[in-house]
């Protein structure tokens, strides 16, 4: 079978894939319904997938309800795959006392071997961005690299969009173009649920050849293409990316920053749900008897005052300066650092903002005025 020849998998074929990955030593992770949201957790079979559940999303709004029989009818939930590749807490080293003498012990490289089921196109791009952040020169994260090198990615093309999606304008979806081992398009639901499956790597092709499948018909390929095309046409939000990095970097004193800071709670929700934000801090945890101390890396956020704290106090004291820093980095200086935007258009920051601040609206507002002072101005 050629790697570019799509095949048809029924639901038993998808179950076989999950079982095969587990037998090959992967910890299989996929979408599941929990506490009123779609989350990513260890997956043992298709009966655990959120079949028949879709999400309703808007600024500061997320609800699930039943509709249809699709296994992947949801769009994205509050979690991203960053949770596994770049976990919220990562031990770096520990100090232990043996016979009263302290000894520094380095943590071994990460050993996890993950297979992700249901990775969306925008999330593939987010993983690719973090590959650059954590795997590029001159600074690399050995734990991220160890997990990433072992990972197996099963993407799913989007059959619907949420009101908060704007991936099409960012060039990151809704169709998965690269970065996956296998990609699925759910082309039929109900009793005859089935998927068009394509390999994106030799690793994926080898797995595909071990599954019960048949060559996909021309009609099935056309149906899959039509599903993705319809999804792309349904996306209503967008960001105009032309000249955007220069716009945000060149507008440090734009009055819109004050306007958005009056609404922003500095809760850091947007950075916690973002699939590309990577800021961290470190924390030392000591046993009460002094026998052990662990230094742990943990997620941080540029929305907290102490994140920019140096000798003499915090650099960014105001909510205005912190929001401006986040958005300017995400849409502007990220290009200078890593060659791409830091935003993939998943819309999570809009959905999970308690007051519904919309990054697409804020970017558009900067274009409404010719106001541009340039330069670097502190608060």
| Helix/strand structural class | alpha+beta
Query: Any idea what the shape is?
Result: globular
Question: Which sequence of SSEs, written as H and E, runs from N to C?
Answer: EHEEEEHEEEHHEHEEHEHHHHEEEEHHH
Main sheet strand line-up: 3-2-8-9-10-11-1-12
Number of helices: 13
Helix content: 25-40%
Low-confidence stretches: 372-379
Average of pLDDT: 93
Total strands: the figure is 16
The profile of the biggest β sheet is: 8 strands, mixed
- β-sheet strand percentage: 15-25%
Which radius of gyration do the C-alpha atoms yield? 22 Å
CA(first)-CA(last) distance: 62 Å
Written description of the protein model:
The chain is α+β, with helices and mostly antiparallel strands. It contains 13 helices and 16 strands. Strand 15 and strand 16 form a beta hairpin. 38% of the residues are buried.
Task: Name a few traits of the molecule.
alpha+beta, four-stranded antiparallel sheet, disordered C terminus, 379 residues, 24% strand
Describe this structure in a few short sentences.
The chain has 379 residues and is an alpha+beta fold. It has 13 helices and 16 strands.
Question: How does the SSE layout of this entry go?
Answer:
Elements: E1 7-10, H1 11-23, E2 27-34, E3 37-42, E4 53-58, E5 61-66, H2 82-85, E6 89-98, E7 101-106, E8 114-119, H3 121-135, H4 142-150, E9 152-156, H5 167-170, E10 182-188, E11 194-199, H6 202-208, E12 214-215, H7 218-234, H8 244-249, H9 256-261, H10 269-273, E13 280-286, E14 292-299, E15 309-310, E16 313-314, H11 319-338, H12 348-351, H13 359-367
Parallel strand pairs: 2-8, 8-9, 9-10
Antiparallel strand pairs: 1-11, 1-12, 2-3, 4-5, 6-7, 6-14, 10-11, 13-14, 15-16
């Amino acid at each position: 079978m050629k790697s570019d020849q799509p095949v048809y998998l029924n639901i038993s074929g998808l179950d076989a894939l999950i079982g095969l990955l587990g037998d090959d030593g992967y910890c299989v992770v996929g979408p599941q319904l929990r506490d009123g949201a779609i989350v990513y957790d260890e997956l043992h079979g298709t009966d655990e997938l959120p079949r028949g559940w879709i999400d309703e999303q808007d600024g500061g709004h997320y609800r699930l309800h039943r509709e249809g029989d699709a296994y992947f009818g949801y769009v994205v939930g509050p979690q991203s795959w960053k949770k596994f590749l770049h976990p919220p807490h990562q031990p770096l080293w520990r100090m232990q006392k043996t016979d009263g003498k302290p000894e520094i012990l380095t943590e071994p490289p990460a050993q996890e071997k993950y297979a992700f089921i249901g990775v969306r196109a925008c999330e593939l791009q987010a993983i690719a961005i973090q590959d650059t952040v954590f795997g590029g020169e001159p600074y690399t994260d050995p734990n991220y690299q160890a997990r990433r090198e072992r990972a197996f990615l099963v993407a799913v093309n989007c059959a619907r969009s949420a009101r908060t999606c704007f991936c099409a304008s960012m060039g990151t979806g809704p169709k998965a173009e690269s970065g996956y081992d296998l990609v699925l398009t759910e082309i039929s639901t109900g009793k005859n649920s089935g998927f068009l499956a394509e390999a994106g790597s030799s690793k994926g092709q080898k797995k595909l050849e071990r599954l019960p499948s048949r060559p996909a018909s021309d009609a099935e390929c056309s149906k899959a293409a039509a599903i993705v095309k319809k999804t792309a046409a349904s996306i209503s939000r967008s960001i105009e990316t032309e000249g955007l990095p220069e716009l945000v970097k060149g507008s440090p004193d734009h009055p819109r920053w004050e306007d958005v800071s009056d609404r922003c709670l500095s809760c850091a929700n947007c950075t916690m749900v973002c699939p590309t934000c990577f800021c961290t801090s470190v924390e030392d945890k000591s046993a009460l008897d002094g026998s052990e101390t662990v230094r742990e890396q943990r997620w941080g956020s540029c929305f907290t005052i102490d994140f920019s704290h140096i000798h003499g106090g915090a650099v960014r004291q105001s909510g205005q300066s912190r929001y401006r820093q986040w958005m300017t980095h995400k849409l502007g200086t990220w290009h200078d650092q890593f060659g791409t935007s830091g935003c993939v258009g998943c819309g999570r920051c809009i959905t999970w903002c308690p007051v519904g601040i919309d990054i697409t609206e804020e970017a558009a507002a900067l274009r409404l005025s010719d106001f541009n002072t340039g330069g670097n101005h502190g608060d």
